[in-house]
Amino acid sequence: GAGVSQTPSNKVTEKGKYVELRCDPISGHTALYWYRQSLGQGPEFLIYFQGTGAADDSGLPNDRFFAVRPEGSVSTLKIQRTERGDSAVYLCASSLNLHTGELFFGEGSRLTVL
Amino acid sequence: QKEVEQNSGPLSVPEGAIASLNCTYSDRGSQSFFWYRQYSGKSPELIMFIYSNGDKEDGRFTAQLNKASQYVSLLIRDSQPSDSATYLCAVNRAAGNKLTFGGGTRVLVKP
What we know:
The complex is a heterodimer. By secondary structure, chain A is mainly β. In chain A, 0% of the residues lie in helices and 48% in strands. By secondary structure, chain B is mainly beta. Chains A and B meet through strand 4 and strand 5 of A and strand 5, strand 9 and strand 10 of B.
């Protein structure tokens, strides 16, 4: 498809388990963002990649969260030792024109930690 | 104090009326300002961006920016039921930087 693709769309896991969420951005978009959105809240910034490198990872809440983008395209957000408070929709976005701030969002991965 | 603040609503407006949404931000270094619309269960989509003080119009939407007051607003004219959604204000310090979002204002347009 032409849009940002995120998998899985839904993930239910148990507390303490490891989770990976995948994002496939729009072809040619060099910037890739991860946000987290809880019910009734706005998206909360986690990390931003320009190419393969993390340009800003200041939003990662702690060292249980890690993200990679090894070839400058697909990105994986990794969460270790999940906690119930990690439950949220994880949104990935990509951007071509950084000056307009137009982020194209995927449909999100809904994570539920039991 | 949150970096970007919005009234959570809901803002209820009759069909055909003007919906007025407000947003304040705390970082005086903010350079660019954005309004995103998010339908329930869907992802955000960009409506408008504004960089300079004053008004910017696009169809039924007008964004207004006042950097001195650290205030940005969105007007929706001739509101339609299809405008019922959450409207997210977002700011960034410079091109290529992260966008910081407010909590959103839920708008309900009643026929």
